Amino acid sequence: MYLVLTIISICVFGAWLKYRWIHRPQPDREKTVALTDVEGPRPWGSHVHQSGVRWLHEIFERSAKLFPSLPALTVHATGHTLTYAQLDARAEQIADLIAPTLSHKDQVVAVYMTQDHPDIVAAHLGILKAGGVQLFLDPESPETVIMDMLRDAQPALLLTRGESPSFDIPSIDLVSPHAFNDQSDQKKHQSTWLDDSAQRLASIFYTSGTSGRPKGVECPHRGYINLVKSYAAYFDFIAGQDATSLSSSLGYDGSISEMYSAWVAGCEVVMLTKSELRSGPDLIPILKEREVTALFCPPVLLSTLSSNPSTDLPYPICRYVIPAGEAFPASLVKPWSEGRRQIINTYGPTEASTDTSRQLLRPNEPVTIGTPFAGVSYLILSPHDLQPVPAGQEGELCIGGCQLAKGYRNLDEVTAEKFVDHPEFGRLYRSGDRCHVDPDSGRVHFHGRLDTQLKVRGFRVETQPIESLLQDHFEEVETAVLDCQNDELIAFVKLPESSQISDSSSVDAFLLRAPWIDRAHQLLKRSFPDYAVPSRYFAVRKFNLVLASGKIDRKALPKISKNLELNENQINLDPKNQHQAYESIDQEVLGICRSILGEALDHDDDFLDWGAHSISIAQLSQSLQSAGYPVTVRSLLSDTRTASAISRIPKQMIHSEGVNANSEQARPNHYVPDENLKTARPIDFRWFSFLQAIGIVLLRLPTLFVVVLLLGFTDAESLLMQGNLFLFLMASALGFGVYLILPVINLSWIYVIRRVLAHSVNWDIPPGIYHKYSTIHLTVWFIEQQQNIVLQPMKNMVRSPVLFRWMMGSLGAHIARSAHISQSVEFSGPLALLTVEPNAVIQSSAQVSTLRWEGNHLVIGKIKIGHASKVGTRATVVAGAEIGPCAWVTPLSSVDRAIPGRIMISGVPGEPEAAYQPLGRN
Questions:
Q1: Is 663 part of any domain?
Q2: pTM for this prediction
Q3: For residue 706, with 0-12 CB atoms within 10 Å meaning exposed, 13-18 middle and 19 or more buried, which class applies?
Q4: What band does 662 get if pLDDT is binned at 50, 70 and 90?
Q5: Which residues of 839-866 are buried (b: 16+ CB within 10 A; e: fewer)?
Q6: Domain of 431?
Q7: In a domain, 30, yes or no
Q8: Which of 113, 176, 837, 893 is least surrounded by Cβ atoms within 10 Å, i.e. has the fewest?
């Protein structure tokens, strides 16, 4: 009857679950999806010292007060490293220096410096401390662009560092011997006008404008505070251990995320120069040397770094990769997710304080921009009437919330056009990005731009002014249209009728080589940054038009693939016996070069003539180095710019240092084969159990003696029956004191037992395989009991790592003084077979056992945890394990074999997953 009732109950419960599943709430695909997030109970995560922050620079100041001696900024190129206290002091100097110039709110201070010295970051902090608004100018930008920015921003002061720009603005040179001579009479910064963080500006960042002039985005403090909160709550950065890269120019809004994501937690910022970022694989040693654990970069940088990041960048180097600036290629997700590395895809325009959403990318999942931060709202609206579109349908992404900028400086009409007051959703920024929301996951999918703006290697480029300049200044160009393909900005040109190419060819686009192209290149470089100058020009017979509007259909532009067929009339190919020429050079080199730059590349073609930019050159350098050709990005941009030149470089042998090279070392390493059992006298089960009982009583004699002693000095009747509070407190204090010294008492008793039984019991158990219920089995059990009565009180009450390590050493373990072992680690088997080398770490709840069972056989083996190795939380290390130096057994993994050094072990049983490099700053 019970069985029948059980079956009926299970069937009824199953039917109810099915009913609930069928009638579960379905997403209304006709309903508008408005994504918002709310601030949780701990908006600053574990960084409680930041609670109540109102100003951006205050985040740094609070960490500087808490972590004054920790490194705050490192410039690898110059070797400078400043602690929080040093950088804060330098920023205070600069703030006091510029304070007399500032007299009211929202005054701009411009900075004209190369980004290769700590002073540029100190200037950023000093301007904010003084109550100013930062504006960073890139000395490599065209002078006309810089002058437009200065005329628009009207800065009160210009800070330089050795540079001597000819700008008609009051300036201070920070390297001048008189700059900081006497600040005693100078006005100390007060910043009394810092009243409302939602109104007071922190920065002005200039983005590309539709008229060719840059637009200044005015960003208040409040938006950045909300941005930094999101980083504090999301990432698990630890003060003094993690480091982020400063990859962006301080004139680009992404620099705020890169610096303050570290500073909010007391971590280090590593500044990378432009030449280092363009060096391709040569950047890897820098990231490893500086132990960068969070790499901020545009996605194209990853394709130039490494094709095997799990080996080249051993965990935890770049354990977080935070791409931004452009859509993340799905092809990069898998290689950059291996070895426990996490890709955190971020999205956000400058007009919404840098980042507004993020998403952890995983292989075989769609690449999305995730969901908005707390305090930010996403809406998908029709670009025509700003009405909500049904869930799942594409529309324009509009952003609301506390991170919105105030608008564009001195451009009221453009501000009113882009920042709209919606009657239902309030103030919104029209991003111009085509997106849709997945109604099931709530994640936002990005589909590109609605307008003619292009993203070129993370930079926004307005095509209209560049196209107009080409059409207006060169009679050879009838119509020009820009496009970005394969991370390269190219120009499609329709030539006048007199110059038109033949219609007999089936090729859609022809690479142009004409004298006017060099003149166009020089003209554009004087007015636009390098990334906005087309690298190649292609002639087309005609442009397809949109029927409804008659405009050029940009979606129908020819696709310039790497296999583009080129017209011999347009390119000066060398007709002299090319077949023999190909045979005379290394075909491998030519194949690699063609895979990056195009299949029609000849052996003497200059890479720069084939549209090679910094990204493609870095990719080429990586591919050639992987094949054994020691070429650098610098050489490819200078003297080694042809395939034939590369083929003359001696090829080096490639030695694999990855996980596979050590695969043979990862074989099981049991100490004794199963067929050779160690001899040990068997014991009858009943006699075995009796001896166990005797052993338990023998080991507990000191505890029993202490209990009897306490009862003899305590009036139990008065304590328990009469409720004498004083006696109760006295007895509790006495019992607690005895419990604290109980490990020492037990350890002393164990010494006595071992000395007395030394002639009849061999306490040094040799590694091997033994029968169950044998003398060795009983001895091992008795040793475990001895260890437990000493270590168990240490785990429960006496929390002293030093004393815990000493106790283990007294029980026979070989543990280095600099090793760290959590007191919650579970030990079994003889500790005399355990060796833990210097700087090794065994984390909480791990299990370390010098014995294991194989059927009815007891396997006893040594365990060695190598120098600076780490055993993760709840990982298992058993007899026979030998962990090499600087290896990492990840949480919940197991090891029972010899493991080489500098690799990561994952799974059950543990297998090599990726390379690993412990952080020196730990």
A1: no
A2: 0.70
A3: middle
A4: very low
A5: bbbbbeebbbbbbbeeeebbbbbbbbbb
A6: 48-437
A7: no
A8: 176
